[in-house]
C-alpha cells in the first residue's frame, strides 16, 4: 500500500511540475494540435496526468537502469555522467511522446543547456516533494 501511495504521489508531482514548467517557465513546451484540449480543464488535467505517468516511467525504472549500466563511467567522472543521463531521460520522454503516441500532443525541448537546468531542477524538486509528501 505504501509503494502504491508513493507511486501516485510521484505521478502527481510530475504532473504538477510538467504543468508549471510548461506554462510558467517555458523551458519545455507541450503543445496541442486540438485547441479543445486547452479549453476543457478535464481534458487538460487528464493529458498532463498521463504525461506525468509517462515521465514517471522514464524517470524511475529506465533512469535507474541507465545509471546502473553507467556506474563505472559515473565513478570515473565523479558522477557528472548522471547529469547527462538526466538530460537523456528528458529527450527520450519527448521522443516517445512525439513519435510513438497517437495523441494530439507534442513535447518540445529548447536548448540543451536549458534542458540540463530543467532536469536538475526537476530531479531536485521530485526528491524534495517526495520526501515531504
What does this structure look like?
This protein has 133 residues and is mostly helical. The chain has one domain. Helix content is 78%, strand content 8%. Helix 1 (2-25) crosses helix 3, helix 1 (2-25) crosses helix 6 (112-132) and helix 5 packs across helix 6. The mean pLDDT is 87.
Give a concise summary.
The chain has helices at 2-25, 35-39, 41-69, 71-76, 81-99, 112-132; strands spanning 28-32, 105-109.
Keywords:
single chain; 133 residues; mainly alpha; two-stranded antiparallel ribbon; 6 helices; 78% helix; globular
Largest sheet: 2 strands, antiparallel
Strand segment tally: 2
Mean pLDDT: 87
Order of helices and strands: HEHHHHEH
SSE blueprint and pairings:
Layout: H1 2-25, E1 28-32, H2 35-39, H3 41-69, H4 71-76, H5 81-99, E2 105-109, H6 112-132
Antiparallel strand pairs: 1-2
Amino acid at each position: 500500500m505504501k509503494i502504491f501511495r508513493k507511486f501516485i504521489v510521484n505521478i502527481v508531482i510530475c504532473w504538477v511540475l510538467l504543468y508549471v514548467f510548461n506554462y510558467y517557465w517555458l523551458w519545455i513546451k507541450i503543445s496541442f494540435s486540438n485547441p479543445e484540449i486547452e479549453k476543457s480543464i478535464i481534458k487538460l488535467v487528464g493529458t498532463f496526468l498521463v504525461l506525468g505517468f509517462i515521465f514517471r516511467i522514464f524517470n524511475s525504472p529506465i533512469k535507474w537502469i541507465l545509471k546502473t549500466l553507467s556506474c563505472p563511467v559515473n565513478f570515473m567522472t565523479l558522477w557528472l555522467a548522471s547529469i547527462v543521463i538526466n538530460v537523456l531521460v528528458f529527450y527520450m520522454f519527448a521522443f516517445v511522446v512525439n513519435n510513438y503516441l497517437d495523441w494530439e500532443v507534442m513535447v518540445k525541448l529548447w536548448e540543451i543547456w536549458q534542458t540540463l537546468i530543467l532536469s536538475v531542477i526537476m530531479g531536485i524538486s521530485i526528491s524534495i516533494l517526495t520526501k515531504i509528501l
